[in-house]
Specification:
By secondary structure, this protein is α/β, with parallel strands linked by helices. The protein has one domain: Rossmann fold, CATH 3.40.50.300. 29% of the residues lie in helices and 25% in strands. It has ten helices and twelve strands. It has helices at residues 2-10, 89-96, 122-131, 148-158, 164-175, 190-202, 220-231, 247-250, 269-273, 276-281, and strands spanning 51-60, 63-73, 78-82, 104-109, 112-113, 132-135, 208-212, 236-241, 253-257, 263-268, 285-292, 295-302. The strands form three sheets. The protein has a six-stranded mixed beta sheet, with helices on both faces. It is globular and about 60 Å long.
């Protein structure tokens, strides 16, 4: 539903009648008799990677923003995508969500090649749009309905799901916005808007969540809540950040985009955090002078802000 939200917000077209009902996604909405977590986990180690990038290169106005990106993310993995501003993180997420097509290379979802032409096939379009969800860094880019209730209901309504009200109320309660269901989204704080957007995506029970700097609009308490919430979701996640102190809380595996827009690391995140040379190459640490009395020295620091 991210594509439909994106196009509606951009005014590309009006909403269309709902699709017919289809299969379930990765996070089952509990029945009224069992509305509390934990949920059954998404099975790990499936036959196909959930998302796989093969030689993805992308250009904007003649400038390369991604160059020869290759990786595979398997069911149940929690992966962090690191890189400085302008390294191509957001562009990569939009490609993996099918919002833009790469200039060259391809990506697959659960073994299916995803291209603009393939997404015109109704069955694949419906499946991909309900199972892969992108949370934008700026929540205002996703909000356009008159109330919080309608915002969360938008995806299930478009899909013609009959348990719409149950989904809306369950996920509103899970993210803590149930008291605001009748309020217009624009009246909420930045953090509350982000929670509404997250609930709107989860109401479709996706199998893969792509999150673009999800803590950018959150205060420390809300950031801690989000980290705990995401860690408990039985869903594959790929989360972007340039905050190294937060990164290990968001996943155990790190993908790092360098300033040259290439993937320069794919591996365990804890090993990465001790590699100052690699972090410096990705512009994720900074070096400056310190003075202690008459002594002056220079050393590197991580970027631990949003």
């Amino acid at each position: 539903m991210t594509e439909r939200r994106y196009r509606v917000v951009k005014g590309a077209y009006a909403t269309t009648p709902p699709f017919g009902k289809g299969g379930t996604g990765g996070i089952p909405t509990p029945s009224p008799a069992s509305l509390n977590p934990p949920y059954p986990p998404f099975p790990k180690g499936g036959k196909n990677p959930v998302l796989e990038a093969n030689g993805i290169t992308h250009c904007y106005a003649g400038n390369e923003v991604l160059i020869d990106i290759n990786f595979a993310i398997h069911p149940g993995e929690k992966v962090v995508l690191l890189g400085c501003n302008g390294s191509g993180k957001s562009s990569l997420l939009k490609i993996l969500d099918g919002l833009i097509a790469p200039s060259s290379g391809q990506f697959t979802y659960d073994g299916e090649a995803i291209t603009p032409a393939r997404l015109k096939v109704p069955a694949l379009h419906r499946r991909f749009r309900s199972e892969v969800a992108l949370l934008f860094q700026n929540p205002d880019a996703m909000l356009f309905n008159p109330t919080v209730y309608d915002e969360i209901a938008f995806g299930p309504r478009q899909m013609g799901l009959t348990d719409l009200d149950q989904r809306v109320r369950h996920w509103a309660a899970q993210v803590g916005v149930a008291p605001h269901l009748d309020r217009p989204p624009f009246s909420l704080s930045g953090g509350e808007k982000q929670k509404v957007c997250l609930a709107a995506l989860l109401a479709l029970e996706p199998k893969a969540l792509l999150l673009d700097e999800p803590t950018a609009a959150l205060d420390p308490r809300s950031t801690g809540w989000l980290v705990d919430f995401l860690s408990g979701l039985p869903v594959t996640t790929l989360t972007t950040t340039h905050n190294l102190s937060l990164a290990p809380e968001l996943g155990g595996r790190a993908l790092v985009l360098g300033e040259d827009h290439r993937l320069i690391h794919d591996g365990d995140i804890h090993g990465l955090l001790g590699n100052m040379k690699l972090l410096a190459a990705a512009n994720l640490v900074h070096t400056h002078s310190h003075r202690h009395g008459s002594m002056e020295h220079r050393h590197s620091h991580v970027h631990d802000w949003q």
